[in-house]
């Protein structure tokens, strides 16, 4: 198949037939079209650094093929780069040259032996002396000039999107750097990485609807975790492990939008003998470190917000005061009826079964979307923070903090509640909410309360998800997942 603009719209049905014929010809020639091993000695990035005349044996995917009669120009691509290949009848036998032209297609993986040289146009290339098939491709790639155009198809066939779009590949390389930087920062600060259960008998650590599954061996229903082991990591604080963190997958059976997914990566750390003030200092430093290591800058444009500078002083925003200032309502003194009237006035949807905390949080979200940041939200009411420690100066509020950037909450932390009797009381209140129909209310974890009764030191906990990466990339979070969950095509 020739790589020309005239041929950039591919007849896939015809192409499948042609490639099966080429596969047959290769097999008839006694050649294995899917050998188990490549014997390359150099990748393409190394080959590009070699001097002229050097011998090279390399491999990769054939990305272009332009036959000029007795000479053929191709481009080979591997994980490190792309390089031009030159096939010539003078260097190969006429039979071998024709066999390549007739039976090898764009997208085939091949191995070649050759010599480094520079063409008259100044492009460093490999003059091919020998070649062999490594993998015969039976389907064509998206055409060079149009690629995958449909956004859903890009997500569904991400492997083709990455292959044909270098920007997408670079984004996922940055994503890897993002989580490496997170891990490196915490390790450097003395935190120990741990692994906690994904299957739980009682979910904890967040207000969220869990996924339910069945454990056959124990014959019982279990839940996929909705937090990164919050109640388990707190048990480790009881055990005397003073600094822990976990990076892993968690699951929430809730809505899907540009900021939310049901299956995503989260980090949470827990730090004994620290409070939320110390947590804010560490988080501010961590966010700057991760941004610098991942993107090489501390300045970002996110949505409608321009020139967000993580290096500036992070503002402290009082939860109750900012709602009162922007919406003219004191959420601590208002009845549920008054909260509902304000939501109606603002045109905000709500569920009639929602608790006071949910109603207040809906009002906060109206205010939040206009905050540029970076800032920390503080002094959050107890009714919306069931696991946070109360403030000694005002027991209606908690020592909770949330980084606010570009109108969104990009993390959540607090001085952890370590009073077992207070925790038990809050769990009991959450149980009543769940029995009243609130699927997101937290479950009563009696084992965790028992652990707290053995004593947990003052502790700061904090977590953020891959939403942070997506925001700093200025893209929807689903786009930033390498393989987001998709409904099977046959069910569409």
Walk me through what this model shows:
It contains 14 helices and 19 strands. With 492 residues, the chain is of the alpha+beta class. It has 2 domains: 5-146, OB fold (Dihydrolipoamide Acetyltransferase, E2P); 162-314 and 373-484, Bira Bifunctional Protein, Domain 2 (BirA Bifunctional Protein, domain 2). Strands 6, 10, 11, 14, 15, 16, 17, 18 and 19 form a 9-stranded mixed sheet that branches. It has a 5-stranded mixed beta barrel with strand order 1-2-3-5-4. It has a 3-stranded antiparallel sheet with strand order 7-9-8, with no helix packed on it.
How is this structure best summarized?
By secondary structure, the chain is α+β, with helices and mostly antiparallel strands.
- Backbone CA Rg: 29 Å
Spans of at least 5 consecutive residues whose pLDDT stays below 50 are: 1-8
Helix coverage percent of residues?
25-40%
> At the fourth CATH level, what is the homologous superfamily of the largest domain?
Bira Bifunctional Protein, Domain 2
Q: Please state the second-level CATH architecture of the largest domain.
A: 2-Layer Sandwich
Termini separation: 33 Å
In round numbers, the mean pLDDT is 92
Secondary structural class: alpha+beta
Query: How many domains, as an integer?
Result: 2
């Amino acid at each position: 198949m020739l790589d020309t603009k005239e041929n950039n719209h591919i007849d896939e049905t015809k192409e499948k037939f042609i490639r099966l014929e080429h596969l047959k010809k290769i097999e008839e020639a006694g050649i294995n079209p899917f050998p188990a091993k490549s014997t390359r000695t150099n990748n393409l990035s190394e080959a590009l650094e070699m001097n002229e005349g050097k011998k090279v044996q390399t491999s990769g995917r054939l990305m272009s093929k332009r036959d000029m009669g007795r000479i053929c120009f191709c481009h080979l691509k591997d994980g490190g780069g792309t390089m031009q290949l030159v096939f010539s009848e003078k260097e190969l036998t006429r039979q071998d040259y024709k066999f390549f032209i007739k039976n090898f297609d764009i997208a085939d993986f091949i191995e070649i032996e050759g010599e480094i040289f520079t063409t008259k146009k100044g492009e460093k290339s490999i003059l091919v002396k020998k070649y062999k098939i490594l993998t015969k491709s039976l389907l064509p790639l998206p055409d060079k000039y149009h690629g995958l155009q449909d956004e859903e198809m890009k997500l569904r066939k991400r492997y083709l999107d990455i292959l044909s779009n270098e920007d997408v590949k670079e984004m996922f390389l940055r994503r890897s750097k993002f989580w490496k930087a997170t891990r490196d920062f915490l390790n450097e600060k003395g935190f120990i990485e741990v692994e906690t259960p994904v299957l739980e008998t009682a979910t904890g650590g967040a207000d969220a609807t869990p996924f339910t599954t069945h454990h056959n061996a124990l014959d019982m229903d279990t839940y996929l975790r909705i937090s990164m082991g919050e109640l388990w990591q707190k048990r480790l604080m009881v055990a005397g492990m003073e600094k822990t963190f976990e990076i892993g997958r968690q699951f929430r059976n809730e809505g899907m939008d540009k900021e939310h997914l049901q299956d995503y990566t989260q980090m949470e750390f827990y730090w004994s003998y620290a409070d939320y003030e110390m947590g804010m200092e560490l988080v501010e430093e961590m966010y700057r470190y991760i941004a610098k290591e991942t993107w090489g800058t501390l300045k970002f444009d996110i949505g409608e917000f321009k020139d967000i500078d993580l290096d500036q002083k992070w503002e402290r925003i009082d939860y109750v005061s900012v709602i009162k200032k922007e919406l003219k309502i004191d959420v601590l003194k208002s009845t549920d009826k008054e909260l509902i009237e304000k939501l109606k006035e603002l045109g905000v949807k709500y569920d009639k079964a929602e608790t006071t905390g949910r109603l207040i949080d809906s009002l906060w979200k109206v205010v939040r979307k206009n905050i540029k940041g970076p800032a920390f939200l503080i002094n959050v009411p107890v009714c919306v923070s069931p696991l946070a420690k109360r403030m000694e100066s005002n027991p209606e509020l908690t020592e909770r903090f949330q980084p606010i950037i570009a109108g969104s909450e990009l993390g959540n932390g607090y001085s952890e509640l370590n009073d077992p009797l207070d925790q038990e009381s809050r769990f009991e209140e959450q149980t009543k909410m769940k029995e009243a129909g609130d699927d997101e209310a937290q479950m009563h974890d009696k084992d965790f309360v028992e652990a707290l009764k053995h004593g947990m030191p003052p502790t700061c906990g904090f977590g953020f998800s891959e939403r942070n990466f997506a925001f700093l990339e200025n893209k929807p979070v689903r786009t930033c997942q390498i393989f987001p969950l998709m409904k099977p095509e046959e069910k569409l």
